[in-house]
Structures are given as C-alpha cells and as structure tokens.
Amino acid sequence: MLLRTAMREEGLFRLAAAASVVKRLKTCLNQGAVDHGEFSMDPHAVAGALKCYLRELPEPLMTFELYSDWFAAFRELLQKLPPENYNNLRCQQIDFHSREGNISSNSELFLTNDQNLIT
C-alpha cells in the first residue's frame, strides 16, 4: 500500500494517524482481514501500523547477534568512500548534531521534534 500510493506523502512516518485507526488496522492485519479500500486513503495509518510492528518485534531486523558485524561492515564501507564524500558525510553528521538541540525550533522543516529523534 505505502509503496504504491504514499511515498510522496508529506511527513509519512512522522505525522501520526488517529490511534483508533491504527489500532483497527493492526487488528485487521492480525486477523488477516484487511479492507484495503478502508485504509488506502490514510497512508499515515498504514505507516503507523508498520512502525508499531517494527517496534514490537522481539528482536531488531538487523538482530542483536549481528549488531557488531553490521557496524564493522559499515566502518569498512566508510573507509572505501572517496575522501571528499567521507568528509562531506562527516560534515553533515556534525551539522545534524549541532542542530539536534535546536530541533524544536525547526520542527516544521523536519516534520519532527526532539522526542521523535529518540525513537
């Protein structure tokens, strides 16, 4: 549903749908009886249900066991970047962290807030 209809939706995964709609969608998904027509007009409900599903997994998709391997592979890939790309990426990271404390004042731009950065 999301890939077909909502990838250009502003604030997707950030703007919350009504909790009751997300709850109803989760119930339908758990029962295997989703009326796509009912939920296709509310991509934020679909995104909210997906976020709930991922949050409620007993283990992250990248698994706890492979956590250090993922970071080792990422570090190895970073070393393969051309120096200009690596430096640009580092500047973006530094810039983001310098703004992180100010995220509330830029919440309209980011469609988020400092609490959302934690989750």
From TrEMBL:
Q: Name one GO molecular function term.
A: GTPase activator activity
Q: Which keywords are on file for this protein? A: GTPase activation
Which domain of life, per UniProt? Eukaryota
Specify the Rho-GAP domain's residue ranges. Answer: 1-119
| SMART domains found in the cross-reference section | RhoGAP
Keyword Mitochondrion tagged: no
- For this protein, the parts annotated as crossing the membrane are none
Which Pfam families does the annotation name?
A: RhoGAP
Listed GO cellular component terms?
A: cytosol
For the biological process aspect of GO, one term held by this record is: regulation of Rac protein signal transduction
Name listed for the protein in its UniProt record: Rho-GAP domain-containing protein
